[in-house]
Amino acid sequence: MLRSILLIFSGNAFGSVMLLVRNLLIARLISVEDYGVAATFAVTMAVIEMLTTIGLHLLVVQAEDGGDPDVQAGLQGFHLLRSVLSALVLFFSAGFIANYLEVPEIAWAYRVLALLPLIYGFYHFDVYRMQRRMNYVPEILSHTSSAFFAVIVILPLYYMFGDFRVMLFSILLQDIVMVAASHYLAERPYRITLDKALIKRALLFGWPLLINNILMIGVFHGEKIIVVGEFGIASFALIALGYTLTQAPTQLLSKTVTSFFVPQLSSRKNQDDEFSHMSMAFFQCQFILATCFVLGVVVVGPFMLVLLFGDKYAELIPLFIWLALLQGIAMVKIASTQISIARAFTGNGMWANVVRVIALPFAWYYATITGEVVTVLWIGIIGEILSMITSLYLMHRQVKISMRPIWVPMGLMFFAMGMAMVFALQQTDISDYHNILSLPVLAMACIIVALVFVSKDLRGYLAARNIVSYQE
Questions:
Q1: What are the sequence ranges of the domains in the chain?
Q2: Quick one: pLDDT at residue 469?
Q3: CA atoms of 339 and 361, how far apart (whole Å)
Q4: How far is it, in rounded angstroms, from Cα 230 to Cα 96?
Q5: Which of residues 11 and 143 earns the better pLDDT score?
Q6: In the chain, what is the greatest distance between 2 CA atoms, to the nearest angstrom?
Q7: Residue bearing the bigger pLDDT, 108 or 135
Q8: What's the alpha-carbon Rg for the chain, to the nearest Å?
Q9: 8 A C-beta contact, residue 113 and residue 41
Q10: Beta carbons of 32 and 237 less than 8 angstroms apart
Q11: Cβ atoms within 10 A of the Cβ of 64, count?
Q12: What was the pLDDT predicted at 8?
């Protein structure tokens, strides 16, 4: 089991790093405005995908008859039908999207982007079927090889176009390679059928996932959509790059910790004392990682931005700490949702996301009043805190474990994040962000030491050397 987890993590990590490298290279090579346009491609595709995804690949893996050739062919046929509909929606929405972004002259690019769901519609589900026998390599290879290819074509595309088209064709080529790899690695021939009974079954299976995906549009892209609508492409480019730089490490950290703890939590779900102890260790680990991440952004964030991009994205520096706080709080929320899932309560994340999305209209309203991008992030942070509290409350009611061991570590984490806010508010000039020996920064470093000291469940868990003792 540990080998499978490490394989999945390493594959996800490599794919995430490759896509991060792609985005950073493109941001470095093209202008800020062109990068803003390029970033809208990713957001547009994510929105279309989330609005139509119902987890067909999960049905292949989880259903008792998911390995049946006829069932697989039917799901592949439904997947292609769904993809064709997504392509048509994007194609006919291209003019509206371009007008909303105030770039009507590039509506053609969004029509070209409509090829993406159409291409992905031919993805071979056999790579998912192989996971039924714990063979994750084909699916991982199809995604990692395409992500790597998306990076190596950047320079040739840049010399050919030199603008936002670099991102457009990099994404297209990535999907072509991914689909081709899925067919090359498949064991069965590719077949599609349309089965009404199977389509109905898939819809019943996938509608809760669809609702959660709609909420996730707001969680992952709500602030970006507000910024591009109210402040234009240049400001959107800053926010998009900031999200890329802060989401990538937090998601990778969270995936690592989740992959490590959740299988063990699930195996101990009927052992109340061990489950409670491990849950608290999970929380305390997230508190420490989130605080270390925010401190890392405070200390090295400005240097990293200048090193990678020079002065091109200097205006991102004052926003970077707020983005880090947003992602740090989101990291903690993952612990409570996953602990609930370990005991088969799957609604926690959905209701927490409802609270998070409710904050978006307020962010949009105050953005129009203040005319400042940072206002959107402040309200986003408040929404994320309320979402985290909702998730904690639901988890406590669902799994019925004592919350006492997390109050002090959580209080210390929020105190450290408060120090990061103080540091950000004290800065009056971009050069001030290099003053990493200020009192708030030193206080954060001391709080991390205190966090480790008070995280008794985590220290006890690690000291017991019980890390890989799974109960199958």
A1: 1-194, 229-472
A2: 42
A3: 30
A4: 16
A5: 143
A6: 65
A7: 108
A8: 23
A9: yes
A10: yes
A11: 7
A12: 65
Q: Dump pLDDT digits (tens) for 160-199.
A: 999 999 999 999 999 999 999 999 999 999 999 998 888 8
Report the percentage of the chain scoring pLDDT > 90.
44
Residue of 69, 44, 201, 50 whose CA lies nearest to 129: 69
State pLDDT tens for residues 399-428. 888 888 899 999 999 999 999 999 888 876
> pTM of the entire structure?
0.80
The rounded distance, in Å, linking the Cα atoms of 104 and 113 is 15
For the CA atoms of 39, 41, 45, 46, the dihedral, rounded to the nearest 10 degrees, stands at: 10
Which positions ≥6 away from 431 have C-beta within 8 Å?
Answer: none
Q: Can you tell me the distance from the alpha carbon of 8 to that of 359, in angstroms, rounded to the nearest whole number? A: 34
pLDDT reported for residue 317: 87
- How long a stretch of residues is the chain? 472
Give the number of other CB atoms < 10 A from CB of residue 399: 20
For the chain, what is the HEC assignment?
CHHHHHHHHHHHHHHHHHHHHHHHHHHHHCCHHHHHHHHHHHHHHHHHHHHHCCCHHHHHHHCCCCCCHHHHHHHHHHHHHHHHHHHHHHHHHHHHHHHHCCCHHHHHHHHHHCHHHHHHCCCCCHHHHHHHHCCCHHHHHHHHHHHHHHHHCHHHHHHHCCCCHHHHHHHHHHHHHHHHHHHHHCCCCCCCCCCHHHHHHHHHHHHHHHHHHHHHHHHHHHHHHHHHHHHCHHHHHHHHHHHHHHHHHHHHHHHHHHHHHHHHHHHCCCCHHHHHHHHHHHHHHHHHHHHHHHHHHHHHHHHHHHHHHCCCCHHHHHHHHHHHHHHHHHHHHHHHHHHHHHCCCCCHHHHHHHHHHHHHHHHHHHHHHHCCHHHHHHHHHHHHHHHHHHHHHHHHHHHCCCCHHHHHHHHHHHHHHHHHHHHHHHCCCHHHHHCCCCHHHHHHHHHHHHHHHHCHHHHHHHHCCCCCCCCC
**Residue 401 zone, left/alpha/beta (φ > 0; ψ -120 to 50; rest):** beta
Other CB atoms within a 10 A radius of the CB of residue 232 amount to 15
Q: What is the pLDDT of residue 1?
A: 47
Euclidean distance between CA atoms 5 and 256, whole angstroms: 9
Query: Using an 8 Å Cβ cutoff, are 222 and 363 in contact?
Result: yes
Q: How many other C-beta atoms lie within 10 A of the C-beta of residue 102?
A: 10
